[in-house]
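Let's do one together. I've listed all components of the complex below, 1069 residues spread over two lines.
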Amino acid sequence: MNRLVLALLLALGAGLCAHRAEAQTATIRGFVTDGADGEPLEGVNVILLNDQDLFLGASTDGDGFFAISKVQPGTYVLRASYIGYIAVQDTLVLAGGDLLTRRYELTADEAQIDEVVVEAERETAGAARVVAGQQTVRASDIELIPSPDVSGDIANYLTTLPGVVSTGDRGGQLFIRGGEPTQNLVLLDGIPIYQPFHIVGFYSAFPSDIINLADVYAGGFESKFGGRLSSVLDISTRNGNKRRLGGAASVAPFVSALRLEGPIVRDKVSFLFSARESLIEQGASQLVDQTLPYNFGDRFGKIHANLSESSQLSVTGLSTHDRADLGAGIEDQLIDLEATDQEVKWSNNAIGLRYLLLPVSLPMLAEILINGTQLDSEVGTPGNPERRAMTRQVNVAVNATSFMRRMDLNWGFFLNAYTLENELGNLFDNVTSDRESLTEAGAYMQSDLRLSRDLNIVGGLRLQAFPSKGVSFIEPRLKGVWRYGAQRFSAAWGIYHQEIVGLTDRRDAGNIFTPWTASPLGSVPEAMHALVGWQGSFGALDVSVEGFYKDLKNLYISEWTALPRSSTRLQQADGTAQGLDFRMEVTRPGFHVLASYGLANVEYEAGQRTVPIWYGEEGALFSPPHDRRHQLTLLLNVEIAGFRLNTQWQYGSGVPYNQAIGFDGYLLVSRPSINIFEREPFQRVIYDRPYGGRLPDYHRLDVSLERDVRLHKHAMATFQAGLINGYDRTNLFYLDLFTLGRVNQLPLVPSFGVKVEID
Amino acid sequence: MRYRWHLILPLLFVGTLVLAACEDELTPIVGTERPYSMYGLLTGESDTQTVLVVPIRDELDPGDPDAGIDAVVRSIDLTTGETRVWRDSLVVFANGNFGHVFFDLFRPTPTNDYRLEVTRSDGATSYAEVRIPADPVAVIEEPAAFNRLYTQEVVWSGIEEMIELNVDYQVRSVIPGSPLTTITIPYEGTYDDDKFRVRLALTEDRFTVFDQLPGGNGSLSAIRMRGFAVDQQWDPPGGRFDFETLVEPGLFSNVENGFGFVGASVEARVSWFLSNEIAQLVGYEAFVPDTTGDGTCDPEDIRCNGGETP
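Okay, and this is what the predicted structure of the assembly comes out as:
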C-alpha cells in the first residue's frame, strides 16, 4: 500500500508542478457539440492561428473535449472544423496565465450532408486503422454488418475483426487474440460489465443506437485499464438529444427494439432510453422450424446534464437478462446420460455516475466515476438450478489529464470492492463454494509524450493491490507511434495481471456458466503483451498489418477426466498467443469493402498431475478450443438504386476439440480383497491426446438489403430483408462426445424487419 | 469509376455455392485396435478366479445385455503350459447396469507366471501377464527399545510388495468383564535387500489403541499382521490408489493391447504375542488369559488359540 500511496503522491505532484510552469502562457479548452442535438463530436480539429500563421492544434475526444496549452499571449483565431459541418471561427485575445473555457456548436453543412458520411476522424477510426492494437468503432461501422435485425450490434461487428474468435451465433463468447472471454474488460461509460454479450452471438448488451464510440484494445492497452489479461472494449454512449424528442422502434424475427431520447431541460439535461427484447422463440424459430430456446433482453437508460460550461454529470444504468438451453436440439442422441434440460441464465445490473470537470484554475480534465455492477448467473434444471454465482463490484475512480505543450499527463486512482458468491455444485472438485469480499486499491500514471510532430511515446505505470490477499502488482506499459506521411508504425508492450478470474469449463462449448472468484489456487494470472504494426492510408484505401505476441502465465483451465460427468478439477496452465492481423478497407461514396485476415496460434501447457504419467512428458502442450488458426472476413457494402446491400462472408478454420479412441468401463483394482462380481465399473471415455482433433471449418454468408423511406420531415422508415447463413452451411456449434450428439449453428434464416425513426 | 457488380456478385454467389457443397468430415471417435479392457485377480487365497471384461466400443452406451459378448477368456500357466477357458457370467449390478465377469475354478500356483487373455472372434486379443507371489514367510524380530520407545520388526521373505497391510492389536480393557477388542492400525513396509520389512511402533501404537479402548487402559493379548503379497506391477503411479488419477486410460495398466489391470496376490498373515514383561514396558497392563474361567478358549482369542502361523 505504501507504494500505491507514493505513486499517487508522485502523480499528483507531477500534475500540479506541471501546471505551475504554465503560468506565463495561456490555455484554451472546451467542448464541441453537434448543433442539432447537443451530442459531443469526437475528432473535431481545433486549431489556433495567429497573424504569422502559427498554429497549434488539438482534436476533440469522446466527450467533445479539447485543450490547447502553452499558448503564448496574443491574438488568435480559433477554428473548429469537422467533415460535413460548417466550421466555426472565434477570435481570442489571450494573456499570460489565461485559462479560457469555451463551448462550440457545429451545424451540419446541408450542401455536403447527402454526400459525406459523417465520421469521427480519429486516427484509429475505421476497420483498417489500427494503431498499437487500438481501433475505434463508430455506430456507422456497425451498421455495415449484415444482421438479423434492422439495427446493428457491436457484437456482430467485433466478429469481423481478425484476431477475434467467436463461438458462433450461439453462446455469446468472444476470444480476443488468444484471450478468454473472461479476460476481456468491457466498460460501458466506465462501468464494468461482466457478461456483456447476449446468448445469441449477434447481440451484445449494447444496441448500436446508444453507442457514440467504442474503443477496442486488442492488446497492449494503456495504464488507465487493468484487472484483465487480454483486451479492453471501452464503450461510450450517446447523451441523448438535448433539443427535441426523438426515438425509434423496430421489429424483426430476432428482436424488437425501442429507443427514446430528448431534452429534460432544453440544451442542458437530456435522457436516452433503450429497450430490446428477443423474439427468437416466437419469430426466428418459426421461420426455421427448429427449437431455438433463447431469450434475452436489455434495458439502458442515461441522463446527461451540462451543469455548467466546465462540468457535466451523467448517470447510466443497464439491465440485461439471458436464458437459454444450449443443449436443446442435440441430434442423434444415443443415450440419456444426464438430464439434458439444462438451462443457463444470467443477468447484469449496473449503474454508474460520471462527473466530468474542468477545474477553474488548472489546465486539466478530471472525471470522477462511481459505479456498481452485478452479474447473477445460474445453471441447472429450470426452477432448480444446481449452480449459482453472484459477482458484485463497486468502483470509485478518479481520472485526470493534465495538458502540456508536448505532453499529456494522465493519472488517477481507484478503489474497488468485490463481493463474490458462488454455489458451484462441485463444478470444480478443488474449488469450494463460498462468499468472499475483497478490496482493491490502485493508482496509475501515464505520460503521452509528443517528442516531435510525428512521434508519440506513451509510457505508464499501474499499481494495484489486494490488501486482504496480500498481493500487489506493478505493471509497466509502453506504446509508441511514428507517423511517416500517411503511414504509421506502432508498437506496444505491457504487463497485466488478473486477480478476479472467471472460471469456465471449456471441455464443453455448451457450458457457458461462468462464476467469478479470486484466484482460487493462489497464483494470479499474468500476461505480457508485445505488438508491432504498420498502417497506411492511400486515398480511399486503408491497409494495416499488426503482429502480436502474448505470454500467459497461471491461467485457470479444467483438468481432463475420463469420466463422463460435468465436474472436474481446476488446474493452472501457461501459454502463448501469437499471430498476425491483416486488414484492407476501401471506402468510397456508396461503396465499401473490408477484407480482414487473422493468422493465430494459441498454445497452452498444462501442469495436470496425471499428464506426465499419461503422456510421458513433463507437461501437456495443446491448443485450446479457441485456437482458430485462420480467419477471413470479406465485407461488401454497396448502394444501388437507393438500396443498401450488405454482404459478409466469414471463414474460420476448425478449432480444436477432444477426440476419443473409444469408450469402456473402469474398475479400480486397488486391493486384492475386491469382489469383481459386485463392483460396478464406471463408464469411461478413452480420450486421445487433449484437443488433438479439429472441428470442421466454419464459413457463412450473410446478406441484407435495406432501404430508407422518408415518411415525414422528422420520420424515417427503414425496411430490411436478409439472409443469415445464406447457403445453409451446417456449421457445428458443439459436439457432445458422450452422446455423439451435435448442436449446429443457425441454419439458413430469412429475416425481415422494419424500423421507424423519429428525429 | 464504374464498378462491375454484374460480374462480381455472380462470381461471389457461385463461389459460395461451391463452398457450401464442401462438407467436412467429423471424426470424434478415432477408434482403436485394442479390443478390450479387463480388470481381474489371480489369487492364491481363493478357489475362484475372476476378471471383468469390457469391450472397447465407439459409443458410451454399453448396448444390449442380451446380445452377449464376443470374447473368449483363457488363462495359460506359462510355467506348466496348462490352458484353461473361463466361463462368462452376466452380472447385473446394483444400479441396473450390467457387465461380463468371466471366472474359473482353480487356485493358481505360487511363483508361477500366468497369462490371462481375452480374444475376439476376429482374433484381436488383449492380455496381461502376472506372476503369483511366493507363499510369504515371516520372521518376527525381538522388540527393541530406544529412549523407552519400543519397536518390533517383522521381516517377510518371498514378498516384493504388500498392500492392504494392517496390524491388529487384540486387547482387553481394564473395565471388569470386558471382552477382547481388536484395534486395527494400517501400516506400510519397505522392500530392501530381498526382504519386505515392517517396523511396528509398539509404544506409539499403544497410545492409539488406548485412545480407542473403553476405559483408556488395558492388556495386550496378541498382535496380528495381515496383508496381501502382490507382484511389483501392483504399484500405482504416484504411489496412491487415487481414483481420479488412475481412471485416466493407460495409467496403472498391465494389459497389453487393451486397458485395465489384472493383479496377482497371496494373503500374508502372522500373529504373535509379547511377554507380559515387555507388554508392561510398552505400557499395557499384564495380560491374564481366559478370565471367563470355564476352561475354553474364546474363538477370537489369538493367544489362547495358539496364535496363527504364516
